[in-house]
Amino acid sequence: MNKKSLVFSLGGFILGALAVWLLLSFGTEQASEGSSDSKSKKANEPLYWVAPMDANYRRDKPGKSPMGMDLVPVYEEGAGAGDSPGTIKIDPNVVNNLSVKTGEVRKDSLVNTVKTVGYVTYDETKITRVHTRTEGWIEKLFVNHAGQRIEAGQPLFTMYSPALVNAQQEYLLAKKRNNNSLLKAAKQRLHSLNFDAKELKKLNQQEKPLQNVTFYAKSNGLVDELDVREGAFLQPGTRLMTIGNLDTVWVEVELFERQLPYVKVGQSASITLDYLPAKSWQGTVDYIYPIVNPSNRTAKVRLEVQNPQHELKANMFAEVSIDTATTEQILQVPQQAVIRTEDNNRVVLALGDGKFKSVGVTLGRTINDNIEVLDGLVEGDEVVLSGQFLIDSESSIESDFKRFGEQHAQDHEHQHGHDMDMSVPSARVSGLINSVDVDSNTVNISRGAIEKWNREPMTMDFDLDSSLSIDLFVVGENIDFTFEIRDEGFFITEVHSSVMEHNHD
């Protein structure tokens, strides 16, 4: 019986010890999980809330922006210790509410169409300008108005000229004497006076000077300008009319300087007009003028277009697309991804897991809706296409704060050794007190600009350091104060004075 009692006692002791061990282990695990959950919950608490359309409007609790939109939370974990300066993290729900869209940085051929407008003009190499080479009177004008169609060999006008009569007499005299040298000289004189071969044939047939000499068209075309009327007295060099040809026309367009690098002589172009919208004409770049118009900073480019049906008329307004495609592979992003500022150009990188970062880029040529990237991105990067302006603002602020904190840490370590704690960034500034919240021990202040951080004026909430009393802050007063940027937020640490206006950096 004693042995049985001993066995039962020993077994009971072992079972009790096992129960205690399990209970303690479970309790420790629960405590650990609770502590972990608490830390995680604290880490996931927002630092502040910001307006989606105005990064300068910040509050310490949820609410509405001046535009009636829900404020967006910004989390402390957005700038983790392992992230580079400027990296922020945004809750997936917020990303969805902001309609953030991304696109891939890619290499592609330079597929570009330069679109512009221009005017149809005559091919100047085929324009005929009719002048007189001697003085005389217009006896008969066969052309009545500008725009009249002219055929080669058609009579244009007849002219009485004493000089022409004398030249004909010299020719007939040389012919009568059978003097070849004089005859040749007389023919050359008639030719120099534009005496036509048809008129020479008449002269040989009737063997007496023609009093009224007829002049003929040398090419087909349309009368563009008519400058004389019947009976007019003409001096040598007087222009009577201008005849243009529409078989081939020029389309002259103007390009901006940034478009010029893409356009080369010989490239094809498509031309359309409003009066025949369903039809297009094909042309080629014939000449790029070497001068830029100083008034509008454009350069003229000439296209040559075949126009056998004469559907293109002089001075018509045309829409032109020049095909400048090449096989060159270049790195490019959509233009909408680029944030342009006075000092630089930036894009917002989507790093994954809700993390974003604003980076500077060097841009090149514009290709339709895309733009060439010379530096700052690599193929395969994801960039934000919409909603990037708010993200860029937050990234810039985060980058400034993180770099500032790191710089202070380096300075203090250099001066006081590595055992000293990292100091927090701080700034002195003045501002107007908008409201005071006694319960949360916070004040809302419209502060001035902070030059050393390159930050614009903004309205934001500040917590008070434990050493300060909230009674120091009166709504409507201007105050000069120093604040620090801590992990928990923005803390006012010192009040210097209440002033009407004060400027500090």
UniProtKB/TrEMBL annotation:
Q: Which UniProt keywords apply?
A: Transport
Name of this protein: Efflux RND transporter periplasmic adaptor subunit
For the CzcB-like C-terminal circularly permuted SH3-like domain, which residue ranges apply? Answer: 332-391
| Secretion signal span | none
Cite the Gene3D superfamilies for this sequence: 2.40.30.170, 2.40.420.20, 6.10.140.730, Copper binding periplasmic protein CusF
- Which organism is the protein's source? Kangiella spongicola
Q: Where is the CusB-like beta-barrel domain?
A: 248-325
**Alphabetical GO biological process terms:** copper ion export; plasma membrane copper ion transport
Q: Which residues form a coiled coil?
A: none
Molecular function via GO: transition metal ion binding; transmembrane transporter activity
Query: Can you give the residue ranges of the Heavy metal binding domain?
Result: 48-74
Q: Look up the record and report any one GO term of the cellular component aspect.
A: membrane
Q: Does the entry feature the keyword Transcription, yes or no?
A: no
Q: Which lineage is the organism of this entry classified under, starting from the top rank?
A: Bacteria, Pseudomonadati, Pseudomonadota, Gammaproteobacteria, Kangiellales
Under NCBIfam families, the record lists:
RND_mfp
Enumerate the spans annotated as CusB-like three alpha-helical bundle domain: 164-209
Q: Is Transport there in the keyword field?
A: yes
Spell out the Pfam families in the cross-references.
3HB_CusB, Beta-barrel_RND_2, BSH_CusB, CusF_Ec, CzcB_C, HMBD
Name the PANTHER family on file: CATION EFFLUX SYSTEM PROTEIN CUSB
Family, according to the entry, reads as follows: Belongs to the membrane fusion protein (MFP) (TC 8.A.1) family.
Question: Which segments constitute the CusB-like barrel-sandwich hybrid domain?
Answer: 128-243
